[in-house]
C-alpha cells in the first residue's frame, strides 16, 4: 500500500481525517471520433468533468480535427463536450482529444451541532426533494418505511443518519448492473449505486434534499463509485451539501477524494419528448449512411492518495457512524 493510501486507511480506521491532507490528483483523457459512410455534418456529445467546491480542474485546450468544440455545464450537475463537424466526405473522421488535470479535496468530518436545520426550500433545492428517474421517493412502501424509521427522531441530521444506517443493514452488497431504489428496497441487494439511490429516496420522502454523486471508473468499461449528498443548514440558515457514503458508513465526511463526473440524477434524454434519465448520456446524430461513434474516457491516478475504488479501504467490520 502506498503512503498516501496508508494515511487514508488510518483515517478510515480511526474515523478522523488528518489535518492538511493534500488534494488527490488525476489525469482524465477523453477522446471522441465520429464519421459516416455518406459524409455530411455530424454532431455528438459526451460527459466530461466540471469543477465543484471540492474539485478543481486544469484543462488543456481540446485538440480537434475537422470540427468545432463546445464545453458547457448541464443542469442539474454535469458538463458536456459537444462536437460539431464541418462538412465531411464519406469516411472522413472528425475527432477531439481533451485532457483534464483534476484535483480533488477530501471532505473533513462535520458535526450535527453545526447543521441542525433543513435549508429553506427554494426552486433550486426543491428539485432534490422530489422523485427522479429510478429514485422514486413517492413510492408508498419507501415513504412508509422512512416515516416509520424517523418516528420520534427530531433533527434532519439524525433522520438522515437513521436512514443511512438502515439502508446499510437492509442491502446485501452485490456488485451488479444498476437497477433502482425500489428494486433495491424490495430485493435487498445492490452495490454502491443502489445504496445511494435508496438512501436518497428515503431522505427525499422525509423532506430532506438529497442527490447522487457519480465517480468514473478507470475506463468506461470499469465500474466507478457512487455516494449521496444531503443538503442541511447551520443555525444561521446557510445551507451546505454533506457527503454520505452508505456502504463505507461515512456520514458528513469523505476521507477519500475520487474524481466527480456528475451530481444530481435527473437529465434530459436526447431525442425524446421530455423524457428524463438518471445519468447524463452520450449521443451522436447527423451525417448520411452508416454513422460511427467512438468514445473513450480514461482516468489515471497521479498522486499517491488518488483512489478510484474507495472500497479497497473497507474494514471487515465497518467504521462506526459519525455521531
Name a few traits of the molecule.
C8orf32 fold; 2 domains; 18 strands; 6 helices; alpha+beta; disordered N terminus; globular; Immunoglobulin-like; single chain; five-stranded antiparallel β-sheet
Question: What layout of secondary structure does this protein have?
Answer:
Layout: H1 3-14, E1 24-36, E2 42-48, E3 55-59, E4 63-65, E5 67-74, E6 78-85, E7 94-104, H2 123-126, H3 140-150, H4 156-170, E8 172-173, H5 181-187, E9 189-190, H6 192-205, E10 210-215, E11 225-233, E12 239-245, E13 250-251, E14 262-263, E15 267-268, E16 276-277, E17 283-286, E18 291-301
Parallel strand pairs: 8-9
Antiparallel strand pairs: 1-7, 1-18, 2-6, 2-17, 3-7, 4-7, 5-6, 10-11, 10-14, 11-12, 12-13, 15-16
Helix pairs in contact: 3-6, 4-6, 5-6
Structure, described:
With 323 residues, the chain is of the alpha+beta class. It has two domains: 23-105 and 280-301, Immunoglobulin-like (Sandwich), CATH 2.60.40.2250; 112-256, Roll (C8orf32 fold), CATH 3.10.620. The chain is built from six helices and 18 strands. The chain has helices spanning 3-14, 123-126, 140-150, 156-170, 181-187, 192-205, and strands at 24-36, 42-48, 55-59, 63-65, 67-74, 78-85, 94-104, 172-173, 189-190, 210-215, 225-233, 239-245, 250-251, 262-263, 267-268, 276-277, 283-286, 291-301. Helix 5 links the parallel strand 8 (172-173) and strand 9 (189-190). Helix 3 crosses helix 6, helix 4 runs antiparallel to helix 6 (192-205) and helix 5 (181-187) packs across helix 6 (192-205). The chain is globular, with a radius of gyration of 21 Å.
Amino acid at each position: 500500500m502506498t503512503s498516501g493510501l496508508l494515511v487514508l486507511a488510518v483515517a478510515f480506521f480511526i474515523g478522523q481525517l488528518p489535518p492538511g491532507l493534500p488534494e488527490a490528483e488525476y489525469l482524465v483523457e477523453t477522446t471522441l471520433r465520429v464519421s459516416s459512410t455518406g459524409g455530411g455534418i455530424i454532431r455528438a456529445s459526451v460527459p466530461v468533468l466540471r469543477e465543484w467546491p471540492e474539485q478543481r480542474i486544469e484543462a488543456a485546450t481540446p485538440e480537434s480535427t475537422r470540427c468545432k468544440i463546445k464545453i458547457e455545464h448541464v443542469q442539474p450537475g454535469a458538463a458536456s463536450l459537444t462536437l460539431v463537424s464541418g462538412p465531411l466526405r464519406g469516411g472522413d473522421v472528425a475527432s477531439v482529444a481533451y485532457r483534464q488535470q483534476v484535483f480533488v479535496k477530501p471532505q473533513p468530518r462535520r458535526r450535527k451541532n453545526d447543521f441542525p436545520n433543513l435549508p429553506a426550500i427554494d426552486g433550486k433545492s426543491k428539485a432534490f426533494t422530489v422523485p427522479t428517474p429510478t429514485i422514486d421517493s413517492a413510492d408508498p412502501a419507501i415513504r412508509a418505511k422512512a416515516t416509520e424509521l424517523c418516528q420520534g427522531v427530531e433533527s434532519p441530521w439524525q433522520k438522515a443518519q437513521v436512514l443511512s444506517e438502515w439502508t446499510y443493514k437492509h442491502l446485501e452488497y452485490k456488485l451488479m448492473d444498476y437497477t433502482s431504489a425500489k428494486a433495491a428496497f424490495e430485493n435487498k441487494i445492490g452495490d454502491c449505486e443502489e445504496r445511494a439511490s435508496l438512501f436518497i429516496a428515503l431522505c427525499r420522502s422525509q423532506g430532506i434534499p438529497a442527490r447522487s454523486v457519480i465517480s468514473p471508473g478507470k475506463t468506461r468499461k470499469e465500474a466507478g463509485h457512487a455516494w449521496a449528498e444531503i443538503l442541511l443548514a447551520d443555525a444561521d440558515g446557510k445551507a451546505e451539501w454533506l457527503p454520505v457514503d452508505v456502504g463505507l458508513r461515512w456520514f458528513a465526511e469523505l476521507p477519500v477524494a475520487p474524481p466527480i463526473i456528475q451530481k444530481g440524477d435527473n437529465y434530459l434524454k436526447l431525442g425524446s419528448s421530455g423524457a428524463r434519465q438518471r445519468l447524463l448520456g452520450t449521443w451522436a446524430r447527423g451525417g448520411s449512411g452508416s454513422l460511427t461513434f467512438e468514445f473513450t474516457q480514461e482516468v489515471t491516478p497521479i498522486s499517491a492518495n488518488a483512489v478510484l475504488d474507495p472500497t479497497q479501504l473497507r474494514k471487515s467490520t465497518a467504521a462506526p457512524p459519525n455521531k
